[in-house]
Amino acid sequence: MPLLHHDLITAPDASPDRWLFLLHGIYGAGRNWNAVSRALVRARSDWGVVAVDLRGHGTSPALQPPHTLQACVDDLDALAEALDVRPQGILGHSFGGKVALLYGDDPGHGIRETWVVDSTPDAREPAGSAWAMLRVLREAPGPFGSRDEAVQAVVDHGYALPVGRWMATNLEPDGDVFRWRLDADQMEALLRDFFRTDAWAAVEGAHGPRVHLIQATESSILTPEAVARAENAGHATGRVEVHRVEGGHWLNADNPDALVALLGEELGR
User: Fold this and answer.
1) Domain around 159
2) CA distance 48 to 55
3) Closest by alpha carbon to 25, among 91, 94, 78, 74?
4) Dihedral sign from CA coordinates of 197, 99, 154, 218
5) Comparing C-alpha atoms, which of 232, 228, 263 is closest to residue 245?
6) How many domains are contained in the chain?
């Protein structure tokens, strides 16, 4: 079975004895978090990061359906076995946050701490900018004569220029043109399963790893009700903590220093 693309990130000359799986959001890739990953291992050389490209993302293969969160968990199982690495921690942003919760909730994985960056355990109806981006992939499938042409296609669908430039990281050259590396049907299947999955059992259960929910202060992803529910779970079980970090949903770009400071202080505590 093909494996997920991944990068092992460590401090120079370090031989870490603890590893953190790091999972990006939908349409993203592990490289989106390079600044955080590299700063973290410099601050905590006892930890290494396995920066993963989830199925169908980055340079990972699409792999076989069904395209579900559980399939993403199974992909991580296969990667851990192949690397002979059993991570003690897992961090996921947005879409990857719910994958991280499910992975950490399986006691067989040996996860001691799960970090969820601006993602909610709630199930809800499909909505939001990630869901709307499917329309771009379907209505502007390419090929494009240049990267700028693809960026403009995203902007023409109502997105800001920085979002267009970020989406353009998902282009791949095909001769003299560029095409989306992302498959719209696979992305839709993954998103549909993300929205219908309720992951609160991984937060509210009496047993399991420590769960750290990071709320971006300028994002509405984690509702006040979800934050209160998580804090109540923390009071009941002693294993859930909510952290608030200044910035928008893309905290890895908005406030990487604060993320690294928080992780550097709390990892393995």
Assistant:
1) 129-186
2) 22
3) 94
4) positive
5) 263
6) 2
Task: State the pLDDT at residue 104.
Answer: 98
Q: Are residues 163 and 226 in the same domain?
A: no
Q: Do the beta carbons of residue 165 and residue 152 sit within 8 Å?
A: no
- Helices 256-266 and 34-43 cross at an angle (nearest 10°) of 40
Which DSSP symbol is given to 261?
A: H
Q: What is the pLDDT of residue 1?
A: 74
**Domain co-membership, 209 together with 101:** yes
The identity of residue 135, as a single letter, is R
Look up residue 215 and give its two tokens: 């709320």
Give one word for 248, left, alpha or beta, with left for phi > 0 and alpha for psi -120 to 50: beta
Q: Are residues 70 and 203 both part of a single domain?
A: yes
- Note whether 32 and 84 are same-domain residues: yes
Q: Write out the two tokens for 201.
A: 């059992």
Q: Give strand ranges (E) for the chain.
A: 6-9, 18-23, 47-52, 89-93, 113-117, 171-174, 177-180, 210-216, 240-245
Judge whether 191 lies within some domain.
no
- 135-148 pLDDT, tens digit each: 999 999 999 999 99
- Shared domain for 18 and 83, answered yes or no, is yes
Q: Please give the backbone phi and psi of residue 161, each rounded to the nearest 5 degrees, phi first.
A: -55, -45
